[in-house]
Specification:
mainly alpha; 75% helix; 0% strand
């Protein structure tokens, strides 16, 4: 619902958008299933390092490809700046490593379907940040998607808590 308006645009991008969403959703589903299987069988830091390495390889290849296609240097003077290193550090530790550690810990404590429902809140947070910080206007379909996501997460959360309380 949130991205449905792009399906009617004339720029030809919607096909790529749907493909990217399907790839991302498939990757998240497979990784969550694999993480759930190994949650108490492997060292959490080993799993995190391996996952980050797997993600870094395609990103590194893509960055060299992008640099080649745009005729730019791969290592620019920006790499030497303190701002760049601060951003990378913030993205790496509290933005990637810490959430992964918490997610891995939660995988051992809760059922997978219960944890995965919170990943649906990602576009809601993205729209909220765009609306609040950048004064973006949300369309009817975006508001509809937000309401559907909020109701769905609430429904699943309430029903799973009710079932646990009754048992």
């Amino acid at each position: 619902m949130i991205g449905s308006e792009s399906l009617w645009s004339d720029n030809g991008q919607p096909v790529y958008d749907v493909i990217y969403i399907l790839i991302a959703a498939s990757g998240i589903a497979v990784s969550n299933i694999l993480l759930k299987l190994i949650a108490n069988k492997v060292d959490i830091y080993y799993a995190m390092g391996f996952q980050l390495l797997i993600g870094a390889i395609p990103l590194g290849i893509f960055s060299f490809y992008q640099a080649y296609m745009t005729n730019t240097r791969v290592i620019d003077p920006i790499v030497e700046s303190i701002v760049y290193h601060s951003i990378v550090t913030l993205l790496a530790i509290p933005g990637t490593a810490l959430p992964f550690l918490i997610w891995f810990w939660l995988m051992d404590k809760a059922p997978l379907y219960h944890l995965n429902m919170y990943s649906f809140l990602t576009p809601v947070f993205g729209l909220y940040l765009g609306w609040f910080y950048f004064d973006e206007t949300l369309t009817f379909w975006q508001w509809t998607g937000i309401v559907i996501i909020a109701l769905s997460v609430g429904y699943i959360s309430f029903n799973s808590n009710t079932k646990r309380a009754l048992n």
